[in-house]
Amino acid sequence: MFIYLHSNYQKNLTLNDLADHVHLNKNYVSRLFKETVGMTFIAYLTNYRIQRSKDLLRSTTDNITDIAMAVGYIEPTYFSRVFKKDTLLTPLQYRQRYHID
């Protein structure tokens, strides 16, 4: 389940997609996911995407829009809002603070 999620996080991935992949009922997958990980599918996916974007912000000079798209966000403004909610920094502020030269 996690291999599939980690391999496809940059796509428009839904709980239905994950349930179809593992051939289980979506409600069961949702409950199993929450019991196993301690958070909902969407919370985990969002967290994973933010972690991957932090890696890219630290290690590349790619622009924010490209990074947003690379981790599964079509709308850069929404990505920035989600990123700031999680880190209390905008993606640009995060890059300025943590970028590895």
Please specify the SSE layout and strand pairing:
Elements: H1 2-8, H2 15-22, H3 26-37, H4 41-59, H5 64-70, H6 76-87, H7 91-98
Helix pairs in contact: 2-3
Q: What does this entry look like structurally?
A:
- The chain has 101 residues and is mostly helical.
- The protein is 72% helix and 0% strand.
- The protein has seven helices and no strands.
- The mean pLDDT is 96.
**Number of DSSP strand runs:** 0
In whole angstroms, how far apart are the ends?
A: 35 Å
Overall spatial form: elongated
* Radius of gyration from CA coordinates: 15 Å
Question: Based on helices, strands and strand pairing, what is the structural class?
Answer: mainly alpha
Q: What's the pLDDT, averaged over the residues? A: 96
Strand content: under 5%
Instruction: List the helices and strands in order.
Output: HHHHHHH
Q: What's the helix count? A: 7
Features:
mainly alpha; 101 residues; elongated
How would you briefly describe this protein structure?
The chain has 7 helices and no strands. It has 101 residues and is an all-alpha fold.
